Each structure stands twice: as structure tokens, then as C-alpha cells.
């Protein structure tokens, strides 16, 4: 198998695994923050709930409906962000947005690319989305919903064509 085909195969497998067995697809009993975000270009809807205590993301749950990329990416996001401090989580979200082809983020401490790839775990495979700009919003929807959950004041920077539903 050629390298590109292998990579493509791995990408499909990982997306499939997260769509079939989504991680943390649940409602939280006592969320401290919540954000519902829509992607009008694809029709994806995501509700991200967070439990933040002592500046640390203790738990995340997501519900919603959408294409396989948006749902797989939400599942990946929960695995990456649970347990992180808000500062680190923000840097990871910003890094991910840039990683999949979004605008360069300048307001956070940047994470070096090697370290970012490691932190992103399965979500690092979504780098392939760069080739399909139409899917960029699908891939970033849940990540932006999470950050907007604890950072509603960052709407102008994060919103980027998405729609907030719980205002
Ligand atoms: Zn989508």
C-alpha cells in the first residue's frame, strides 16, 4: 500500500471508530458551562457541556447531530481537553484550529508543533481536512463550542461563520 493510501486508511478507521463509539457523548448532571453551536454550511449542531473546577476541565459531555467529521472531532476533543487547565486547553484549541487550516492565532502562548501533535492524539489525523476547506467548520465546531463555553467573551475571534444557539 502506498504511504498516502495507508494514511488515508488510518484516517478513515479512526474517524469510523470515533463515530461508532463516541467518547463522552453524554449530558453532564451538573455542568458549570454550556454552549450550543451550529455550523450552517453543513447543518451540524453540537451542545458541549463542561464541568470546570479549580481552573481545570474536570469533565466534558457532548450531544448533537451532524456529519461524521463533526461528531468524530467532538469525541476526539473530549479526550484531549479533559484534565487540562483552561490556559492549556485554550492553547490546544487555538493550535488545533490553526492545525486544520484556520487563521493563525496570535493571542495565546503557542505550543510547538511536535508537542501539539502529541497532545491532539487522534485529532492530529484531522490535519487532512486542510485539503477540504468546506469541512474545516465541521472539524472545528466542537472545539470552538468548548472554548466559547468558558470564554463567551472570545466570540468575535472564535465564531468564524458559526452560529451560537443558546443566546
Ligand atoms: Zn459537517
List the helices and strands and how they pair.
Elements: H1 3-20, E1 33-39, E2 44-53, E3 56-65, H2 68-81, H3 86-99, H4 113-120, H5 136-150, H6 155-158, E4 163-164
Antiparallel strand pairs: 1-2, 1-4, 2-3
Bound molecules: zinc ion.
Question: Could you characterize what this model shows?
Answer:
It is a single chain. With 167 residues, the chain is α+β, with helices and mostly antiparallel strands. The protein has helices at residues 3-20, 68-81, 86-99, 113-120, 136-150, 155-158, and strands at residues 33-39, 44-53, 56-65, 163-164. It has a four-stranded antiparallel sheet, covered by helices on one side. Helix 2 (68-81) packs parallel to helix 5 and helix 3 packs antiparallel against helix 5. The termini are far apart. The mean pLDDT is 91. Zinc ion binds next to helix 2.
Amino acid at each position: 500500500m502506498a504511504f498516502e493510501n495507508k494514511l488515508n486508511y488510518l484516517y478513515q478507521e479512526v474517524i469510523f471508530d470515533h463515530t461508532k463509539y463516541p467518547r463522552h457523548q453524554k449530558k453532564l448532571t451538573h455542568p458549570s458551562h454550556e454552549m450550543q453551536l451550529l455550523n450552517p454550511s453543513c447543518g451540524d449542531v453540537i451542545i458541549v457541556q463542561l464541568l470546570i473546577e479549580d481552573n481545570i476541565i474536570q469533565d466534558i459531555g457532548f450531544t448533537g447531530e451532524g456529519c461524521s467529521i463533526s461528531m468524530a472531532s467532538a469525541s476526539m476533543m473530549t479526550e484531549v481537553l479533559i484534565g487540562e487547565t483552561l490556559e492549556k486547553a485554550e492553547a490546544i484549541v487555538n493550535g488545533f484550529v490553526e492545525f486544520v487550516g484556520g487563521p493563525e492565532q496570535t493571542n495565546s502562548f503557542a505550543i510547538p508543533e511536535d508537542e501539539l501533535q502529541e497532545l491532539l492524539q487522534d485529532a492530529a489525523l484531522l490535519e487532512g481536512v486542510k485539503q477540504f476547506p468546506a469541512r474545516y467548520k465541521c472539524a472545528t465546531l466542537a472545539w470552538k463550542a468548548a472554548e466559547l463555553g468558558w470564554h463567551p467573551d472570545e466570540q468575535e475571534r472564535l465564531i468564524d461563520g458559526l452560529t451560537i444557539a443558546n443566546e
